[in-house]
User: What shape does this take?
Amino acid sequence: MTEVINTRCCIAGGGPAGMMVGFLLARMGVDVVVLEKHADFLRDFRGDTIHPSTLEIMYELGLLDEFLKRPHQEVKELAGEVGKESVFIADFTHLPTHCKFLALMPQWDFLNFVVEQAKRYPRFHLKMQAEVTELVIEDEVVAGVRAKSPNGSLEVRTQLTIGADGRRSLVREQAGLEVIDLGAPMDVMWMRISRQPTDPPQTLGHVDKGRILVQLNREDYWQCAFVIPKGSAEKVRERGLAAFCEEIAGLSPFLRDRVSELRDWKDVSVLTVTVDRLARWSRSGLLCIGDAAHAMSPIGGVGINLAIQDAVATANILGPKLLRGTCATNDLQAVQRRRHFPTWAMQRLQIGIQNNVIRGVLASSGTLELPLALKLLRRFPILRRIPARVVGMGFRPEHVKTSKVDLASRGIASS
Ligand SMILES: Cc1cc2nc3c(=O)[nH]c(=O)nc-3n(C[C@H](O)[C@H](O)[C@H](O)COP(=O)(O)OP(=O)(O)OC[C@H]3O[C@@H](n4cnc5c(N)ncnc54)[C@H](O)[C@@H]3O)c2cc1C
Assistant: This one.
């Protein structure tokens, strides 16, 4: 037996983009069903960076204080080390936002928080372990999705399907939306290494002799990203774990006494870096957002934040139309028109850094000199506000323009 559900908006994928747009639409009274294929959000090494632009959205939603009660670390500045020279790169403390820092929070805590808020709204329906397997297409219009769950199959019929199912989106593939692959010269190996109270406090990047290591301060551990040339993970493994640990200790000597915590390659996850963008984010009855519309390079850790900005723009533009039941193809295109520039500009910047900096560093074998741009950041601290603004707020930040249904009048506590 197939369970059939009718709803105003069906969202495929419960990551940052899907959960946020589901929450915002339900908050304004639109009936939504979110389908998430996993049973929970507990997956390590997904994006954990919540940027000032996202924290500002939390403020606009009146949820910031509640949100910041969740365990997190606050990063006020980013530092780097090129060869033997250290430099501060970004200073978030002057941003025109309520939070002048970047918060590091496990993505499952972030998603659980959004779900808790969304569940207060009666029109929010979340189905976990519901994997979208197929689009329902009738007369060239996407009319919903089919999904499988442990309780059997499911058909969700809807006016609007939102594909928020990430970088390997089944929705965008089934919809036949053209993907523009922008390429990436690197992959990233992620791992945890414990942190001692005597370690430096900053989030750090080390660059030297063909190697790049980024360390995010997670209080009791370092979340480390080791950047390798594209497709070379197998070669790194062949050199052996001991050689890998030695490379990490060479870049970050204070980790030498702990790097042996990496006992097995299972302790090291590989992220295949993809940078792409859909030529068209929508077709009749369907819109893709977040990584499904544009996978970002890990540079700047902006993926979650762009996904959330897309969600806010989608709710701002489509929410009122969905409430009235008049969401047309032109409205879906308006979301792409709104979000194309910030996505394009950030990807241009990331690709510039990938091609002009990372490619060169990974190919080099000698000690590196501090480049001119970083020398300027060292000499003129005020310039550190520029990278902070670009990373922390992105281009053309979104603001919540949607209203919320009156929960009190429905006998539901409003906080
Ligand atoms: C290892 C790694 C590290 C990263 N680090 C950072 C970082 O530090 N900072 C940052 O900002 N970004 C980072 N990113 C990128 C960031 O995680 C993504 O940009 C962001 O999560 C995109 O959000 P999204 O909601 O569009 O997609 P996703 O987070 O990918 O969410 C998609 C959701 O859809 C679900 N799903 C997929 N297929 C289906 C289906 N068929 N049916 C139902 N559900 C489905 C998935 O289970 C998932 O929950 C990282 C990514 C990876 C892989």
